[in-house]
Amino acid sequence: MSGYNVLTYQRKNDLGFITLNRPQSRNSLNRELRQELISAIEKANNDERIRVVVISGAGKSFCSGADLTEKLAGRDADNFTAEIMHNEYHPIIKGIFNAPKPYISAVNGAAAGIGSSLAMACDLMVMADDAFLYSPFAMISLIPDGGCHKFLLSLLGSKRAYEVIAFSERISAEKCLSLGLTNKVVVKEKLLDYSIDWANKLAEQAPLSLKFSKQLLRESAAISYEEVMNIEAKYQNIVKKSSDHQVGVQAFFEKRKANFIGK
């Protein structure tokens, strides 16, 4: 079913499931888990049968960040940390961020350190009522990574983002909801059921619309509204010619649900 050692990977109909599975370490990211995550995300992205991917964590936490107990060879080299980030962490975040399909993070317990970046990189987030985001980097004279500055800036604005970073703020699920950091908060016993139900509903939507709107939302943060409109026009031209558009129009007039195929 999985073929991995420290995560589980599964496809059920239109959905892909990636579950971090190092519960004894609160799913901290050691080298093995980082490498398996890169592989699983690439596998899900390339599987045309999968329309939505759900990422979750086994046990009491979503992901507690980097595995601080791991001692890797060469760690005293000048550029060691940057190389690890570029080669083992960034492909995870970018694999989700640039995926041609939506990702949902189902967050239980802690999403801490780069685990918070992993959760925020997903297009949608569902949190258990006892879950929280936590970036304690400033407490040990480090900075958030994995794109955390970008995520917090885009969602909170510079002043609130800087406050969260400077004071290593632990943000509860309810506060995440009020700040726009998460989409939904549910009782922890219903987290996976709710996330799967939401993913199934998302998988019924037009894949091309989901793909291009995801890409546009990513690009829009760094370009002018004129450029956004030009890109929208380009993508609209593509989807207008698709079979899914014809199916959707016909279903709309016939007052029934459309059966999209992503072409």
Structure description:
- This protein is an alpha/beta fold and 263 residues long.
- The protein has two domains: 7-203, 2-enoyl-CoA Hydratase, Chain A, domain 1; 207-253, Orthogonal Bundle (Lyase 2-enoyl-coa Hydratase, Chain  A, domain 2), CATH 1.10.12.
- 46% of the residues lie in helices and 15% in strands.
- It has ten helices and nine strands.
- The strands form two sheets. It has a six-stranded mixed beta sheet with strand order 1-2-3-4-6-9, sandwiched between helices. It has a three-stranded mixed beta sheet with strand order 5-7-8.
- Strand 1 (7-12) and strand 2 form a beta hairpin.
- Helix 4 (148-156) packs across helix 5 and helix 8 (207-220) runs antiparallel to helix 9 (225-240).
- The longest helix is centred in the middle third of the chain and has 18 residues, at 80-97.
What descriptors fit this protein?
263 residues, alpha/beta, 2-enoyl-CoA Hydratase, Chain A, domain 1, Lyase 2-enoyl-coa Hydratase, Chain  A, domain 2, 2 domains, six-stranded mixed sheet, three-stranded mixed sheet, globular
Task: Find the CATH superfamily of the largest domain.
Answer: 2-enoyl-CoA Hydratase, Chain A, domain 1
Q: Gyration radius, to the nearest Å?
A: 19 Å
The biggest beta sheet is recorded as: 6 strands, mixed
Low-confidence stretches: none
CATH topology-level fold name of the largest domain:
2-enoyl-CoA Hydratase, Chain A, domain 1
Strand content: 15-25%
